[in-house]
Write a structure and sequence with these properties.
Layout (H helix, E strand, L loop, with lengths): L1 E8 L10 E4 L13 E6 L4 E14 L10 E2 L8 H14 L3 H8 L7 E8 L7 H6 L5 E3 L7 H12 L3 E8 L5 E8 L3 H10 L5 H12 L5 E2 H8 L3 H9 L3 E8 L18 H15 L4 E7 L5 H14 L3 E5 L7 H11 L3 E4 L5 H12 L5 E4 L11 E7 L16 H12 L2 E6 L4 H9 L3 E5 L10 E6 H8 L6 H12 L3 E5 L9 E3 L16 E3 L4 E3 L6 E3 L12 E3 L4 H11 L5 E4 L9 H10 L5 E4 L12 E6 L13 H13 L10 E6 L5 H6 L4 H14 L7 E9 L2 H18 L5 E13 L2 E10 L5 H11 L9 E6 L6
Parallel strand pairs: 12-17, 12-18, 13-15, 13-16, 14-15, 16-17, 19-29, 20-27, 20-28, 26-27, 28-29
Antiparallel strand pairs: 1-2, 1-4, 3-4, 3-5, 6-7, 6-8, 9-10, 9-11, 21-25, 22-23, 23-24, 30-32, 30-33, 31-32
Helix pairs in contact: 1-2, 5-6, 9-10
The protein binds adenosine-5'-triphosphate and zinc ion (2 copies).
């Protein structure tokens, strides 16, 4: 009888979905559990890797060479059986490997860090340079990139002659934060006697003894004790010497909430909200898995509906999971939830440090937090007994992960809801066409909130044709009407939100003599100008260089800065409206931790008239004094070579318009565009989602796009363009042979940005309705081309891609 365990191992270039079998050594036999992280030897044995215990099979049989598990990295499982099963489902669903799904579910600090080390086996080696490396110890850290080529060559030679060994170790980065604590060790009954021995003027020691008498044995943070009782460290030292107390390490959670959050209370719901809450509560009470689409216009009070449904789940001793697009972008929302449920709330988002994230994760895992608010990856929060899952702004593209595993949060949410038998609420003013179509088919329950709170009317939207504007007054950024409206609001003490619709956030440069555009040397994309650092940067690979003052091509000095960066617009606006106070919000001004929140708070306190920003200001903001919204350029998102560009444009315009007139005063919106007749822009005038849905569905129908068709994207990439291309042609042949002729294949073709980070990308897009062979066929491609990854050629499969480029 053997003690065996099945381990899912983390070998990046040789992945497989088959677990490996290892022997459980005697000393671990009581300890090992499913879902723990372990360290196991791999390959010839000198290499150590991280793995996850998938199964424990005490009486298994296995023939062949078995290795022992080396050690465990956790004292208790980090993945429960729900998350383990989910990783298997997810790998299958997203055409990825189970280990990458598991790693996605865990906080970053739990991913193994591999450290290479060199071990000197023979100290008689004669190479002086190499010898020097080992002057302190026989085992040293090995970072090949830091060594000179000559030394590296010698090391490789010595390794071949078995004089040096390369070891691979796993480093655990997950550490709890420890602080100094103290614990009294004298009996309370002894305190009186000791008291008598203390000098009358040793006031601090007396204070400390009084504390010990009242709090016998209690462990407390030293820092806290000293502050609270005004006791100095030297008093503590004396007390330790006198054996009144001992010092110990205690764990402290890193606290990401520096700001105090004001408590808030449930509002009295209006009839529409109440009926929505009733519908959602039913499956919470009766433990049913059900998906709701909550289609509520901007300002209809969706958030209050979420909060009261969460309250219901909590009252039934269940937990709640609430997802928002990228929470650091919606500090208002986090404050509302935190203010309602207090310390029970854990937050998971990219604004946290790795350590803070790890601590929040453990608070959830230990059951100390039962409401989780977070961005995409929070869907993996280790909650038990989930009573409700909410996805706010369900149409948002950040819910789909853009790298492997390419999961959509909505799919994971539905899987978890089935597991926990609870409802999912998908909320939006502009649902994705996919979700809305499912609601029409009856797969989701549609709940509508068609009116704003207090029956406030939606803002009046005006569309301005910038072609005329450019001819008449030569300005492409600000129309006369918008400027007048801005001046008018400022004179009334009201506030303004202006959006600059850009994918990037800065401008590029072009030579007016020869048309030369400065491009990234590594990617097929132009470099963008950053005035804060005074450099040109590539947004894909990070390449950075000086701003040229002469054209690198023709040497002429007529180089011109193109495009409207937010900085440029800000300084122009400041000249046009000199008395305005402007807050600019873009990637540059919000890079520092907490900057986003600070800027919004400043705006909320009325310390500025205008909030000027990129798409990041379009969603979720709720400022009662904003009565004017201006979209400076509605067109950029229309130009994207993507069948969803109209949907994205409509969404964005509706969302940003929705920031105006949310309280007593009426709202007004100006949308500036060079395509005033475009249907997405025309329909955003009345913010008529239903009409847009019908128009767009019709177009998707006649062009065979989702939601009528499913799609999948297959990409190959390599530093050698012809290798990437020929791989795609090879794959297209496999697909043609195996798939029915109802499936439509687009490509193989170069991706729209052909080269990124010196790699060339080729792609195929499949559109299909019903293709029973497809899953197996793609699974085959995934497994078959895995071996090429070692040579640097990657094949990726993206199911239901959001991005066709
Ligand atoms: N029942 C209610 N009574 C009074 N005020 C309410 C009620 N429900 C919500 N509100 C207030 O109405 C405003 C808009 O609500 P909320 O932000 O939840 O809307 P929303 O539907 O999420 O909007 P958006 O989609 O535009 O973000 C908020 O200031 C909120 O406090
Ligand atoms: Zn030139
Ligand atoms: Zn680049």
């Amino acid at each position: 009888m053997l003690n065996l365990a099945k381990i899912i191992v983390d070998v990046p270039t040789m992945q497989t979905n088959e677990p490996y079998t290892y022997r459980i050594p005697e000393f671990l036999s009581d300890q090992l559990q499913r879902g723990m992280r372990v360290i196991v030897p791999f390959g010839n044995g000198s290499r150590k890797i991280q793995g996850i215990v998938w199964d424990i099979d005490y009486a298994g049989t296995f023939d062949g060479q078995l290795k022992d598990i080396e050690s465990v990295m956790d004292l208790s499982p980090v993945l429960n059986s729900e998350l383990l099963s989910m990783s298997k489902w997810m790998a299958n669903k997203t055409f990825s490997f189970q280990i990458s799904c598991i790693l996605t579910m865990l906080p970053g600090v739990m991913h193994a860090k591999y450290q290479k080390q060199l071990k000197l086996l023979d100290s008689s080696i004669d190479n002086e340079d190499v010898k020097k490396l080992f002057y302190k110890s026989k085992i040293i850290d090995f970072n090949p990139e830091e060594l000179e080529n000559d030394i590296l060559k010698n090391i490789i030679k010595l390794k071949r002659n078995n004089k040096i060994e390369i070891k691979y170790n796993v480093k655990n980065k997950a550490h709890a934060k420890k602080i100094l604590g103290i614990q009294p060790i004298i009996k309370p009954s002894d305190v009186e006697t000791i008291f008598k021995d203390v000098r009358k003027n040793a006031v601090n020691q007396q204070k400390l003894l009084t504390y010990i008498k009242d709090n016998p044995q209690e462990i407390i943070a030293q820092r806290y004790l000293c502050n609270k009782y005004n006791i100095s460290e030297s008093t503590i030292k004396t007390a330790i010497k006198k054996k009144w107390l001992i010092q110990t390490q205690i764990e402290e959670y890193r606290n990401p909430y520096k700001q105090k959050v004001e408590r808030n209370y449930p509002l009295k719901l209006n009839n529409e909200q109440q009926s929505a809450v009733n519908k959602i509560n039913d499956p919470i009470i009766n433990s049913l898995d059900k998906v709701f689409l909550l289609e509520g216009v901007t300002g209809s009070g969706k958030t209050e509906v979420y909060l009261q449904a969460i309250q219901k789940a909590l009252s039934m001793n269940k937990t709640a999971l609430m997802l928002v697009p990228e929470i650091s972008l919606t500090p208002q929302m986090s404050r509302r939830v935190k203010g309602r449920f207090g310390d029970r709330v854990a937050m998971l988002h990219s604004g946290l440090s790795n350590g803070e994230r790890y601590d929040e994760w453990r608070r959830i895992e230990r059951g100390e937090a039962d409401v989780v608010v977070g961005a995409r990856s929070a869907i993996f929060a280790p909650l038990n007994d989930i009573g409700i899952i909410i996805m706010d702004e369900e149409h948002d593209s950040s819910y789909k992960q853009d790298e492997t595993p390419r999961y959509h949060t909505r799919d994971v949410a539905k899987w978890r809801a089935k597991y926990h038998k609870c409802p999912v609420v998908l909320g939006s003013a502009t649902p994705s066409l996919e979700s809305r179509a499912r609601a029409t088919k009856g797969l989701y329950d549609l709940i509508k909130l068609p009116h704003r709170i207090n029956n406030k009317s939606l803002p009046k939207v005006n569309i301005i044709d910038m072609k005329n504007e450019l001819i008449n007054n030569g300005d492409e950024d600000f129309s006369d009407e918008l400027l007048n409206a801005i001046n008018n609001r400022i004179s009334k003490g009201e506030q303004i939100v202006l959006m600059l619709n850009r994918r990037g956030y800065s401008s590029f440069i072009m030579c007016r003599t020869c048309g030369f555009v400065l491009k990234c040397p590594n990617c097929d994309i132009s470099l963008t100008l950053h005035m804060d650092t005074k450099t040109m940067k590539c947004h894909y690979c990070g390449h950075e260089e000086q701003i040229p003052y002469k054209c690198p091509n023709c040497n002429d000095n007529k180089i011109r800065y193109y495009g409207t960066g937010t900085q440029k617009v800000q300084s122009k606006l400041q000249k046009l409206v000199p008395n305005s106070r402007i807050i600019r919000m873009d990637v540059d001004t919000t890079r520092k931790k907490g900057a986003h929140e600070r800027l919004l708070q400043k705006f909320g306190q009325g310390k500025a008239d205008i909030l000027l920003g990129t798409q990041m200001i379009a969603k979720g903001l709720d400022f009662p004094n904003v009565t004017l919204v201006g979209v400076l350029n509605a067109d950029t998102s229309l130009d994207l070579p993507d069948f969803r560009s109209s949907e994205k444009t409509f969404e964005l315009l509706t969302q940003v318009s929705g920031r105006a007139g949310r309280a007593e005063k009426n709202g007004l919106v100006y949308i500036q565009t060079f395509n005033p007749d475009n249907y997405a822009i025309q329909l955003s005038k009345n913010q008529d989602y239903e009409q847009f849905y019908r128009t767009e569905m019709h177009l998707r129908h006649i062009t065979n796009y989702p939601p009528y068709y499913f799609t999948v994207k297959i990409t190959s990439s390599d530093v050698n363009e012809s290798k990437a291309a020929s791989k795609m042609f090879e794959i297209s042949k496999i697909l043609k042979a195996k798939l029915s002729n109802q499936t439509i294949m687009l490509g193989p073709s170069p991706s729209s940005i052909l080269r990124i980070k010196n790699k060339y990308y080729y792609q195929i897009i499949l559109k299909y309705k019903n293709e029973p062979n497809l899953h197996a066929c793609l699974e085959y491609i995934l497994q078959h081309y895995q071996k090429d990854a070692q040579k640097g050629l990657y094949v990726n499969i993206d199911p239901d891609p959001l991005n066709f480029m």
